[in-house]
């Protein structure tokens, strides 16, 4: 019996040692879920190594248990979006177990190498246009200030914006930046500090704490962007909070355009259709306010395809919801936020375009907690808060990026398209630097086989992709180190697995190390 007990104790000890978690077991989770923000040179603590992570394990466990981190406001049970900053239950449990076991190092050399980050810009590549407010000193002493900087675009031809990155020069004082354009070129800067109304007649984008760069889908079957007219002035409305007087900011925007010969694009519209400026939130109360578009009694006259949503409030907001509906008939879910955090705002970009049909109306509801139990309340004791433009007032100000709807929009996997986008990945050549070339397709339309004749100028790889009209990839092939002056490639109208495809229109994309071309072929 004694031997049996000793054997059991030895077994349990061996199992405990085996189950002991060390840094190498959790490092991949930190890399995947945390280090895009928490890395050397960022504005956050560095969690890319064991020695830099260990001092913060207590706060990491608290943030994981309370759901504060990773910071993602949108309710994933309501709508899913691209690039969600979330952590799975098993990943969360693994980190917490590692911490409760003592956050042991183990052999840290066994951990995979940490990712590397570019701390200067989010979008890799050379922008086509950079516009800056210059070196500007805030004068916001006892009240918030709004300044509108009007900057000539110097464009002599219309261009289509493919991507935009707003780079705050002083993140500690930038409450937000709203980017618009005045296509007449007549607007002049308003640096009085009282530029509350957003000028311009073309919406481009918005920056608030937590906002990422915006890259629009740029491949077939959906190529989209914001049109910037020749001679336009770009207007940057900057909001600085009270108490920031004397601090210097140098916010700039980086714009990436489509090549000038790209014409088959969809126009993106940037607007803030859901607003409420009649809110009165009394002290020690919780209130809910709503907004409608076009109105509480009228509906949309045409269908929309929603690309991104940016609901916005200030400090005491707790929950938000946006949807579209036909009274008493149907609802289209847009976004729901169960625990609003002013410090993490963004354009939530849809995984697939969300169709809002003609005849529907947009709806927004925000709940505000103006009690002493709200840790974000700017007033102690609570005071009545009105709708307004200062940080310690409140807003219901919900934005959209959308396109005119086309059949099939809601079926295209945008996340898959953008996952390989080199502007976002930042490790390959910028797509916008590719030059289009002319290839020959014959016969087109085709019955059995079609030949793609691809000219080459030097040794290169060639990637060949075929998509259906819903954006689903049906065929892929890659040729390595082609050395000829041209390549002839035949396609038999079948998938990689040999399945025959139906008659119809198919989209192809052919890419080399130096060129990119996209077009259509017809199978009869």
Characterize the structure shown.
The structure is a single chain. Mean pLDDT is about 85; it is low at about 10-20 and about 425-435. Helix 2 crosses helix 5. Strands 1, 4, 7, 8, 9, 12 and 13 form a seven-stranded mixed beta sheet that branches. The protein has helices spanning about 1-20, 25-35, 50-55, 55-65, 90-100, 415-420, 420-425, and strands at about 130, 135, 145-150, 160-165, 175-180, 200-205, 215, 220, 220-230, 235-240, 250, 250-255, 265, 270-275, 280, 285-295, 305-310, 315-325, 330-335, 350-355, 360-370, 385, 395-405, 440, 450-455, 460-465, 475-480, 485-490, 505-510, 515-524. The protein contains seven helices and 30 strands. It folds into four domains: about 1-110, no CATH class; about 120-265, Jelly Rolls (Sandwich); about 270-430, Jelly Rolls; about 435-524, Immunoglobulin-like, CATH 2.60.40.4070. The protein has about 525 residues and is mainly β. The termini are far apart. The protein is globular and about 75 Å long.
In short:
The protein has seven helices and 30 strands. The chain is mainly beta.
